[in-house]
Structures are given as C-alpha cells and as structure tokens.
Amino acid sequence: MLKSKDLLGIRELDIPEIELILDQTAKLEEVSTRAVKKLPALRGKIVANLFYTPSTRTRISFERACKALSADLINIGQLPSALGETLTDTALTLQAMGVDIIVVRHHLAGAPVQLARNIEASVINAGDGAHEHPTQALVDAYTIRRTLGRIEGLKVALLGDIRHASAAKSDLYCLVKLGAQVAVGAPSTLIPEGLSEFGCQVFHTVEEAVDAADVIITTRVSLDYGNDKLLPSLREYSRFYSLNTERLALAKPDVMILHSGAINRGVEITATVAERARPHLQRQIAAGVTLRMAVLYMLAMGKGVA
Fold first, then answer.
1. What's the pTM value of the predicted model, to 2 decimals?
2. Which residues form the Aspartate/ornithine carbamoyltransferase Asp/Orn-binding domain (predicted)?
3. Which label site among 112, 117, 199, 281 has the fewest CB atoms less than 10 Å from its CB?
C-alpha cells in the first residue's frame, strides 16, 4: 500500500514504494496475455481522465488500464477551462458526482498538487508542465528491470529536451533512487540549472553521455515551450544531438533504447535508430498499460477496495 492517497511525483516516493509499484505491475502483467484482458478489481469505482494538454500514450494507456480493471471511465478535455471554470472547481464537481480517482495532465507545474490538497478523491499526476510525469518514469524503470533484470549499477543516458520534459526529470529522480548511474546529454539551453545536484552527470554532448551506456532514453524535442528562442533550429539540433547510428555505436552493443513519446523522427532520433529500437519501444508502451493498472489498483486499495 502507498503512503499517500495520491501519486504526484517520484520525489515524494521512497524506494520501497517504487519497488512495490514495480512488483505489483509484474503481478498484473499476466492479465494482458489472457483471452479476456479484464479483472473486476475496480468494479463500481469511477475514474476521470482530466487532460488539459495533448497526450497519446499516457491518455490511452490510462483508458486501457481503467477498462482492464472494470472501472467506469469519464474522459474530459479542455472544455471546463474554455468555459472559465477553475481546475479545482472542475475537480470538486467530479468528486460530487462520485469520482474516486482523477488523472490530471496540465500545462501548469503544481496543478495536481493543488487538486490533491482540495479534494478527497485520489489524484494521479499524468504530467504537469515541466515538473514531473511519475507514471512514465515508473513505466521506464519497469521496462528496464523487466528486460535487463536490474537497474542498480546500469548506466542510463537521458537525451533531448531535459528542461521542459517532465518525464525526463521523473526518470532522473526514479533511476538515481534505484541505483542507476544517470548521464544527461543535451545543449546547455535545454538543461535546467542545478540538475547535477540530483545525482547525475551532466554533459553537453551526446557522445559523452551515451559512452558505454546500457540504456538510452530520449525525449521529444520541438520548437514548443519557447524552444525557438533556445535552439537555432531543429535541423541544427539534429546535426549535433540526434541519436544516430554513429553516436549509438559508442554505447554498449546491446544497448536498450526507450523514448517517452511522441517521436520526432529525424530530430532527437533518426529513423534508422528508431526502427532498431522498435522492440524495446513496444515493450515500453505495453508496460504503460500494466503499470498504470497497478497504480490505479494500489491507490484504490488504499481507500478500501478488497
């Protein structure tokens, strides 16, 4: 059981809690192999997906996880804010309608924390601006552990837009806690100040970051978030920082490649490398459903589900 009714960030979790979530995910993995991919664990419970920013993998995997656990699901987009309603008022409305768990994705850092303080329902952070994306980091940790058998002692390179990618920060916090050696490789403009204080090595070349790496995790790079002021162009980024076959050759021969999605082929990763990574990416995406099933179940269990 988790200590909190909410999952707001990796920094709030201790190592036993992270390992408990990963272990629960392993127990639920068998469900995906059944002819009927469904459990009655959350029957009668209501989950609301409250997504204020675009998402493909995260939103759909939460939908699949809810349905696999037999929960009732409500999907909500940006309509409440378009009508002028605050995030808290929307959440209180949902709670009054009997919603048990709210999965929220928002462009403002701290939005899920604000919700959790004002409602009794459980809150899951599905990405809050440039802050955290805890379930994606747990998915990545599970995929690594499931494939390589361990996390402790592995060298993991994080590439891409580290400044704005909430998943990259959560990956860093999670993997360092679990004993990985994390190396960040990105332009200085895409690395937040003080990042090395969290136990990672910071490099300004991809070559240094991926050298002898066991795992490489890339994050999406685009001209969103004001990056048009931080990068000369995406072509320039691709030339010096894209994960291509030459840079990949510096990592270990059997290196594992993950991507937090969505992929910009030819920018943060070349099409050739993306295709080589396809088996790992498919495992990562499949684990996204099972991991989120585990989180939903554990939060609901903490509130009285048998």
1. 0.94
2. 152-299
3. 117
